[in-house]
């Protein structure tokens, strides 16, 4: 998995590293757990923006009782029924199915 620093993410988004850190604090973007918010998966960005439905999906997961580690693991866990991973499905604009699965998995 390719990762980016907050400064690299900021450059792609056309914003400041402080704004990227704010997105992380607000849970609209997720860093690799244990990286101290210093490694953000490149897959979370597309066309110079945060992946369109990622912030809403993260809200569903966190509201459903997921920890950051749980959410991260779920997003990158292969699912043969999608097919691929939930983050790949989001990148392919299959967000409805991914969000429905996240809602069904709430604790």
Strand and helix layout:
Layout: E1 3-4, H1 6-13, H2 17-25, E2 40-41, E3 45-46, E4 49-50, H3 54-63, H4 68-76, H5 86-91, H6 95-104
Antiparallel strand pairs: 1-2, 3-4
Helix pairs in contact: 1-2, 3-6
Describe the structure.
The chain has 107 residues and is mostly helical. It has one domain (3-104). Helix content is 49%, strand content 7%. It has helices at residues 6-13, 17-25, 54-63, 68-76, 86-91, 95-104, and strands spanning 3-4, 40-41, 45-46, 49-50. Strands 1-2 form a two-stranded antiparallel ribbon. The protein has a two-stranded antiparallel ribbon with strand order 3-4. β3 (45-46) and β4 (49-50) form a beta hairpin. α1 crosses α2. The longest helix has 10 residues, at 54-63. It is globular.
The figure for the number of domains is 1
Question: What is the gyration radius calculated from CA atoms?
Answer: 13 Å
Indicate the structural class.
mainly alpha
Helical region count? 6
Counting DSSP E segments of at least 2 residues, the number of strands comes to 4
The residue fraction in helices comes out at: 40-55%
Main sheet summary: 2 strands, antiparallel
Distance between the termini: 28 Å
